[in-house]
Amino acid sequence: EWGKPLNGVNILITAGPTREKVDPVRFFTNHSTGKMGYAIADVAAKLGANVILISGPTTLVPPENVKTIQIESAQDMYERVLEHYPHTDVVIKSAAVADYRPIQSFDQKMKKQPDDLQMKMERTTDILKELGKLKKHQLLVGFAAETNNVEEYAKRKLETKNLDLIVANNVSSVGAGFGTDTNIVTIYERDLRKIELPIMSKYEVAKRLLDKVQVLLKGAE
Ligand code: PMT
Question: Does ipTM come in above 0.95?
Fold first, then answer.
């Protein structure tokens, strides 16, 4: 049933949340379950690509024929992505990477204090932005999770991170974003053409996205 149009293409996909450690029993994270990224990895492998999936903690079973690497923090993800970037043709960053982490983390459990607690946070590395700066032959696909001004913010990320495509989802719409089996996305290209997709399964979104990737790869040959 599956043709192999992505035969020989090296695709790096990130999925899931990151965990930013506070102490051995606590961390900051977000609602990503990895469903979107795992669907893309699964479909890409079925289309013949060599797939590396770099995943934050999820409860999902790694797809067949995909090399899955488990990580925890944004920094871990950054290091593993950089390691594989030089021999990657396409990067798809569906992971929900933490933008901040605690400046200090503790090796022993923090004890409760009588007063309020203030925790200082620092920025993590914007992985996609770094990839945009280092880009040579790679095709870079980002995601934008927004709750408002979706189009404006997505287009801005496409520009500032030097991407080739961005997949925007309004994570406050029912049936879209975190945790659901469906998503509602608009895919923006560099020339700002857009493909506005209705609600569909994350697998179907993955197929539509990889169709577009294939067209761009053909154009670059
Ligand atoms: O995992 P699911 O439950 O299926 O949910 C899917 C999803 C909502 C997580 C997915 O569809 C999605 O929108 N993923 C991107 C989430 C996100 O972090 O978006 P953002 O707009 O904050 O980031 C923009 C892009 O920069 C993303 O491609 C992100 O991976 C990347 N980024 C962000 C921060 C950072 N420090 N490094 C990055 O590379």
Answer: yes
